Amino acid sequence: MDVPYDLTSYVRVLKLASTPSWEEFSRVALIAGAGIVLVGLIGFVIFVLMSVVPGSTPA
């Protein structure tokens, strides 16, 4: 493990990185939020189906 080489590569990456514009940030946040809602909705549908089907939950 070459620590000086690793540090210079990290600094190089940070210099190349830039702050996203508000439009780019809001679009990424919207897509991520939609994905979270979709996964939650799928989980809720599975929960409802497991509650409705008799004998599906152990007693």
UniProtKB/TrEMBL annotation:
GO terms for cellular component: endomembrane system; plasma membrane. InterPro entries: Prot_translocase_SecE_dom_sf (IPR023391), Translocase_Sec61-g (IPR008158), Translocase_SecE/Sec61-g (IPR001901). It comes from Halomicrobium mukohataei (strain ATCC 700874 / DSM 12286 / JCM 9738 / NCIMB 13541). SUPFAM superfamilies: Preprotein translocase SecE subunit. Component of the Sec protein translocase complex. Heterotrimer consisting of SecY (alpha), SecG (beta) and SecE (gamma) subunits. The heterotrimers can form oligomers, although 1 heterotrimer is thought to be able to translocate proteins. Interacts with the ribosome. May interact with SecDF, and other proteins may be involved. It is found in: Cell membrane; Endomembrane system. Essential subunit of the Sec protein translocation channel SecYEG. Clamps together the 2 halves of SecY. May contact the channel plug during translocation. One of its GO terms (molecular function) is protein transmembrane transporter activity. The keyword Membrane applies. The keyword Translocase does not apply. Keywords: Cell membrane, Membrane, Protein transport, Translocation, Transmembrane, Transmembrane helix, Transport. It is a single-pass membrane protein. The chain crosses the membrane at residues 28-53. This is Protein translocase subunit SecE.
